[in-house]
Design brief:
By secondary structure, the protein is α/β, with parallel strands linked by helices. It has helices spanning about 40-45, 125-130, 135-140, 150-155, 175-185, 205-210, 225-235, 245-255, 290-300, 300-315; strands at about 25, 35, 50-55, 55-60, 60-65, 70-75, 80-85, 95-100, 100-110, 115, 160-165, 190-195, 215-220, 240-245, 260-265, 280-285, 325-330. It has a 9-stranded mixed β-sheet. α9 (about 290-300) packs across α10 (about 300-315).
Length: about 325
Amino acid sequence: MNVDDLEYSYPESLVALQPQEPCRVLSSNEPAPAEIKLENAFDMIEEGDLLVVNNSGVKSCRVFHKNAEFLFLGTKGDRLWEVLFKSSKYKVGHKFELPGGVGAELVVKGRPQVIKLDQDISEDYFEEHGEFAIPPYIQKLRDSRHASAADKDWYQLDWKKNINSLAAPTASLHFKEKDLLALSARGVHVAEVSLDVGLGTFLPLEQKNFDEKKLHVERFFIPKDTKEKLVEAKANKKRIWALGTTALRAVESFNEDQVGVFAETDLFIQPGYEFKWVSGLFTNFHQPGSSLLALVMAFNGIEETKKAYAFAVQNKFRLFSYGDLSIWTRPL
């Protein structure tokens, strides 16, 4: 597989600029792709099955400076921060004044860049001056670089516990905590993982990703009770569902040494990957050329995925982060 295998066409009118409730749902489980209702999607999760969800919420880490914007990725200590911004016209040593009177100096160019601040900042700074990093294609079609006031609710998990992600695990935006409680009430097991959505969300794939079978590094955490539920479900031949590609990547990445501790994964799931745990996937429709689309193709097959996406485009499903939901299963 290469990047060209991940291309498909769609009209920009299908890109969702805000959520829609209820969302439309495409099921790939029929003899051919078919639309089902969201309540029927819940019915596909049977008693005794395990649903794994990501509890990593989105942080407000995008800070504006005049006509530029800085996406703060993480601190390196000593007031040094890794960031993403359009730095081509700036030289090392250039100084910026950020909101709140915070000075910043460009220390390292490249991707990501490194800046040094003239004072310490905390999460309170980002809460006051930062915005969510709404996907660039939404910013473009809205003709606004800024997130809207409504995005603060739209682009955040209902069951967030750890606020460490640069972008939302978007399949989870279709579900509320009450939905998880309702599934639990009828015998579905629910387990949480944390995977902090990172820099790779904003970077294009390169051929070396395919050759090396490695992707951007993301931090994840598998609690002990989640590991026990995974082992039990597999032993009982019950389906393990991942609510989103981030939950799937965390589950498929862990080993016994990584239970109960934070670990890192650079796993690139592409066609040919042998799934160890997950046999059911809820996910949005993903952009051409993305690692997330490669994951879906690995899960369901290249041609089958292309047929399902063609059906979605032909039937005007809403695409990408605020778009509609798709469901995929593999044999147990």
